[in-house]
Q: What sequence folds into this?
């Protein structure tokens, strides 16, 4: 039986090979890291990075906006240590916590997330999208690059498997354990619009790696 791993421990155990794996093994990520920076507004002064990990997506963003102030949130302290080593000279504030309880503040010009939202149930994701919406300025932008599927059948399969494994292993609803539960592109866009975003556009898809840009104003 597949044993689910606690989320922070899962990533801590893989921190030394994480960058190489994401760039070379996950189709679309190499391109996504570069493309994400292009959608960050030129006048962005404050950026929120959810699931910042080792900061792979920040390389292009810092190249475009070297003075931008970044608040990064991640469950895994080992990942945050790696990020801090890479960008020790940059204006970064790091929070080791989960997105739902962390107080990351408001007034961000842009928020980004890369390959993290597919770990959560739909109701939790909607709750988080509303929190992101409220954290942005009136003209704020949220950019998400994530694992998404094309059929409802596939989406239902992964959510059902996650629920089955959690029940078999006695894992509570609000405990963070690693398992991929991707939504369809349409459902992901619908959730963002339900949370308040006025415009959501799909700007990239390579295999299952998909990028959405959601605008608040």
A:
């Amino acid at each position: 039986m597949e044993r689910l791993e606690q989320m922070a421990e899962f990533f801590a155990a893989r921190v030394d090979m994480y960058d190489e794996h994401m760039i070379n093994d996950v189709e679309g990520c190499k391109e996504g890291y570069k493309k994400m920076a292009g959608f960050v507004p030129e006048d962005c002064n404050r950026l929120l990075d959810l699931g910042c990990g080792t900061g792979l997506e920040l390389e292009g963003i810092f190249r475009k906006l070297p003075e931008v102030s970044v608040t990064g949130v991640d469950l895994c302290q080992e990942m945050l240590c790696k990020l801090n080593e890479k960008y020790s000279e940059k204006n970064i504030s790091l929070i080791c916590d989960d997105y739902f309880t962390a107080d990351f503040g408001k007034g961000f010009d842009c928020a980004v997330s890369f390959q993290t939202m597919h770990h959560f149930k739909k109701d939790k994701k909607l709750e988080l999208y509303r929190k992101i919406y409220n954290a942005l300025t009136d003209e704020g932008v949220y950019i998400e690059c994530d694992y998404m599927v094309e059929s409802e059948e596939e989406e239902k399969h992964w959510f059902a498997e996650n629920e089955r494994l959690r029940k078999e292993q006695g894992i509570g609803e609000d405990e963070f354990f690693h398992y991929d539960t991707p939504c369809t592109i349409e459902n992901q866009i619908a959730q963002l619009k339900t949370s308040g975003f006025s415009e959501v556009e799909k700007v990239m898809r390579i295999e299952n790696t998909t990028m959405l840009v959601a605008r608040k104003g």
